[in-house]
Structures are given as structure tokens and as C-alpha cells.
Specification:
This protein has 399 residues and is α/β, with parallel strands linked by helices. The chain has 2 domains: 134 residues, Aspartate Aminotransferase, domain 1, CATH 3.90.1150; 245 residues, Type I PLP-dependent aspartate aminotransferase-like (Major domain) (Aspartate Aminotransferase, domain 2, 3-Layer(aba) Sandwich), CATH 3.40.640. Helices cover 39% and strands 13% of the residues.
């Protein structure tokens, strides 16, 4: 390996660095310390910052400001929606009430762990939950969905873009199928918002989740879109914040950061998507040319522009990650929320990837600061790392 060394961050699907202009906006907002629920001038200053950010977030996805609820994370937003369907009804619930006959939830086997775990939890409490499979590219079978949604189904939850393999679902068609059967539809759009155009009216979703730290905003803040008129029950109870839909003093600084991040995404997203798609193509071709016995995972066309997931036969993902880290390159072996697990990726297994192949997979996710020089460096170092890992590995290539 050469001595030339760079710092290359290829884990933007896990989190993104703060945009410099987001940092500036949050720094300015630090002088506004009032509680946004207070009626005096200090509280009103904080309230204005929050409502300005709400308008930015709403406009970005073509929603009304009153349809946006600020939450602590994308995971909280997803849990809020899933737990609606274990709610037995209370004075905090908004009308119309959930149909008592429609208590079944349908989701997919490749959702983010927060959706899978929340769904499994309410299933243990008696709510019917069905997990649908996907094809080899990670696409949901729409005919199967149409067959499964019935008069018992209250909610269907399908992520817009997968965090591990980047596959994009046809949310508009899925929504039509769900609504034709009289059910409600939620989409975890944490990986999509800010990377793809998202219009909640055109997609006709009832609930949609997104997060600031995936779009160059701060950690610890996200948003949940709740279409006007659909059932809703707060997940966190207490005060009257967020129009009584999410208790707890609002994270003013985080919300300011989210609002600024959204505004910047509006200006930068289109050109960045084209640039990232070009870099991804170059990276993919470079890996194909220099490294044998590989398999790319995810849909070849319907995929996030900056996400590339690849399996290397005869190598182990954690070893690849650590050797690349020694060269200054940060990648992932799957979802950051599941990185403490030694189990192979549930997403890759659901797409039919063999367990041995899944263990030898890495995800490279590029962002606004990724350059062609970075990609060339990655190809060079990855080629050497895979050769080295395969040489010392005990992993069988035929299992």
C-alpha cells in the first residue's frame, strides 16, 4: 500500500457533518434562551424561530405548517406512528378515532430497526403485524401488497429509500393501493428527504418521517408529517407543546438547525444528486474493474444517488471496515443503529444474499463534500485492502 493517506468520509447514510451555514444559524440562535411556551418577549423570540423552521420544513415536502410535528429523531417519529395502532384511546387522541376493526399493521422485512422493533413490540401486546418480503433488489411486490391489505388493515408502513442498499420504493403506487383498501399509509423517508424530491400531497401519504442529521443538520431533532384529519395519538404525553401532539419543551436550537438544513437542501439537492450519481457510477466501475468476485446489492436504477452496497466473497465486512479506517476511509457494514450486532444485515438476507456474502458486505454512502479525488483514493485503497483481507481470511468463498 502507498504512503499517501487522506481522510475520506463515506458514511453519510449514518449521519452527515453539519453544514457550515447550519452551524452559523444555530450559533446565532444560542442567544435566544426563552422557553417557546412562555408568553413574554423572550418566549416569543424562541417561538418565532420554531415557527419559521416549521414553515421551511412544511414547504420542503409540500405540507401545511400545522401538519409538521417536531420530534427528537426519525426513530421517535416512526415509533409514534406505529404505536398509534396499539392505542386503546384516550382524552389525548385526536378525532377521527382509529377504526377498532382495523388494528392490523403491514410493513416490510427491510425496514429500519426502529420500525421493525416497534412493530414486534406491539405484536407482542396483541396487535396483528405482518412483515412482507422483497425481491432480490429490495423492491416490495405490489401484487402481494394488494393481496395482503384487507378490511382488517389499519396501517401500511414502507420506507421510501433503504438506508443500507439505497433501493427506492414506488411510494405513490403503494399509497394508492393502500388507500383503495381503506387503510392509512406511513413512509419512513429519513433517507429520502433531502436526497430525492418528496411531495406529500403528490405521494398522498398520511404520515411521513424525516430527520435533520441525515441532511447536514444537527442530531437529536426530526419531524413527523401528519396529514390533516387523520387519526393521531401522542407518543409522549405531558405538556401542550406541538399543539398537544408531542410533550416536552421544544429543542429550539435543533429545530433552527433543521429549518436551515432544509432550506439549504432546497438550493443544493438537485445538482448534488447529479454529481453523486456520477461519482457512484465511477466508483462502481472502478470496483468492477479492479476487484473480482463481487456483488452489488440494491436496485441498479431505483437507488439513492450516493449509496453503494457491495459484497466481497471470501472477506469479512468488519475486517474490511477496520483496514479501510486505517487508510483514513470511513464506511459501514450496514445500519449504524445495528452496528453493535454481529448478525448479518437483515436487509441483505431479505434480498436473498447468502449469509457468508452478507457478512462480507460494506456500504459506502457519499455526500456533498465527496470529491472525485476521494473516489479514486477509495478504489486504490479498497483494491489493496480486499486482496489483503482475502489472503488472511478464513471465510469460505463457496458457502
Amino acid at each position: 500500500m502507498t504512503k499517501r493517506k487522506r481522510a475520506v468520509y463515506l458514511d453519510h447514510n449514518a449521519t452527515t457533518p453539519l453544514h457550515p451555514q447550519v452551524q452559523n444559524a444555530m450559533r446565532k440562535a444560542m442567544s435566544v434562551f426563552g422557553n417557546p411556551s412562555s408568553l413574554h418577549q423572550f418566549g416569543r423570540q424562541a417561538r418565532k424561530l420554531i415557527e419559521d423552521a416549521r414553515e421551511e420544513a412544511a414547504a420542503f415536502i409540500n405540507a401545511r405548517p400545522e401538519e409538521i410535528i417536531f420530534v427528537g429523531s426519525g426513530s421517535e417519529a416512526n415509533n409514534t406512528v406505529i404505536n398509534l395502532f396499539s392505542c386503546q384511546g384516550s382524552r389525548s387522541c385526536e378525532v377521527p378515532c382509529l377504526d377498532s376493526c382495523r388494528k392490523e399493521i403491514i410493513t416490510t422485512s427491510i425496514e429500519h430497526p426502529c420500525v421493525l422493533e416497534a412493530s414486534a413490540c406491539i405484536k407482542e401486546k396483541g396487535t396483528a403485524v405482518e412483515f412482507l418480503g422483497v425481491d432480490n433488489y429490495g423492491k416490495l411486490d405490489l401484487k402481494q401488497l394488494e393481496e395482503k391489505v384487507s378490511g382488517r388493515t389499519g396501517l401500511v408502513s414502507v420506507m421510501m429509500a433503504n438506508n443500507e442498499i439505497g433501493t427506492i420504493q414506488d411510494i405513490g403506487r403503494i399509497s394508492r393501493i393502500v388507500h383503495e383498501k381503506g387503510a392509512l399509509f406511513h413512509s419512513d423517508a429519513v433517507q429520502a428527504v433531502g436526497k430525492l424530491p418528496v411531495d406529500v400531497k403528490a405521494l398522498d401519504v398520511d404520515y411521513l418521517s424525516f430527520s435533520a442529521h441525515k441532511i447536514y443538520g444537527p442530531k437529536g431533532v426530526g419531524a413527523l408529517y401528519v396529514r390533516k384529519g387523520v387519526p393521531f395519538c401522542p407518543f409522549i404525553l405531558g405538556g401542550h407543546q406541538e399543539r398537544g401532539r408531542r410533550a416536552g419543551t421544544e429543542n429550539t436550537l435543533g429545530i433552527v438547525g433543521l429549518g436551515r438544513a432544509v432550506a439549504l437542501r432546497r438550493a443544493e439537492m438537485k445538482d448534488e444528486a447529479v454529481r453523486l450519481a456520477s461519482l457512484k457510477k465511477y466508483l462502481k466501475e472502478g470496483i468492477e474493474k479492479n476487484i473480482p468476485d463481487i456483488q452489488f446489492n440494491g436496485h441498479p436504477q431505483d437507488s439513492l444517488p450516493g449509496t453503494l452496497n457491495v459484497s466481497f466473497s471470501g472477506a469479512e465486512g468488519e475486517s474490511i471496515l477496520l483496514y479501510l479506517d486505517m487508510e483514513g476511509i470511513a464506511v459501514s457494514t450496514g445500519s449504524a443503529c445495528a452496528s453493535g450486532s454481529l448478525d448479518p444485515s437483515h436487509v441483505l438476507l431479505a434480498t436473498g444474499v447468502r449469509q457468508s456474502q452478507a457478512h462480507g458486505s460494506i456500504r459506502m454512502s457519499m455526500g456533498r463534500d465527496t470529491t472525485m479525488r476521494d473516489v479514486e483514493y477509495i478504489i486504490e485503497k479498497l483494491t489493496a485492502v480486499i486482496a489483503h483481507v482475502r489472503k488472511i481470511s478464513t471465510v469460505s468463498t463457496g458457502s
